[in-house]
Automatic annotation (TrEMBL):
It is found in: Cell membrane. Keywords: Cell membrane, Membrane, Transmembrane, Transmembrane helix. Pfam families: DoxX (PF07681). Belongs to the DoxX family. Its main location: membrane. InterPro entries: DoxX, DoxX-like_oxidoreductase. It is a multi-pass membrane protein. The chain crosses the membrane at residues 49-69, 76-95, 107-127. This is DoxX family protein. It comes from the Bacteria.
Length: 134
């Protein structure tokens, strides 16, 4: 095996894990802001748990944590990808066609990163991977 291929085979699952963990932490932060007020974001003051934004917060908090841990990665990533597609088309697309103009870039990026995680799996350093190897 060529040295370059060995390097790629060694580091691909590790970098996939880094992508998963960083994405999960950033997504988790949206949930903690909505549900726990940490960090404080004024627009989430008085957020009702049984509202669309409250449901989004639950999915962001719980889904983000599961993605960070690498637990049930594929089904959770699939659900979160769909959630972000819905968020984009409900909240951003009606404002303007282009994501740069309608401020929907993050929703689109999360949607496709979660879609990638659904297909690629959790990578290294995950509960899913540890469970699979036992």
């Amino acid at each position: 095996m060529k040295l370059e291929q060995k390097f790629i085979n060694t580091w691909s699952p590790r970098l996939l894990a880094v992508l998963r963990i960083v994405t999960g932490l950033l997504f988790l932060e949206h949930g903690t802001a909505k549900l726990l007020g940490l960090p404080h974001v004024a627009m989430f003051d008085g957020l009702q748990l049984l509202s669309l934004m409250g449901l989004a917060g639950v999915l962001e908090l719980g889904g983000g944590l599961l993605i960070v841990l690498g637990l049930f990665t594929r089904p959770v990533a699939f659900i979160l990808s769909g959630m972000m597609a819905v968020a984009y088309f409900m909240a951003h697309a009606p404002q303007a066609f282009l994501p740069l103009v309608n401020q929907g870039e993050l929703a689109v990026l999360y949607c496709f990163v979660f879609l990638y995680l659904f297909i690629a799996g959790p990578g290294a350093f995950s509960i899913d991977s540890a469970h699979k190897s036992t």
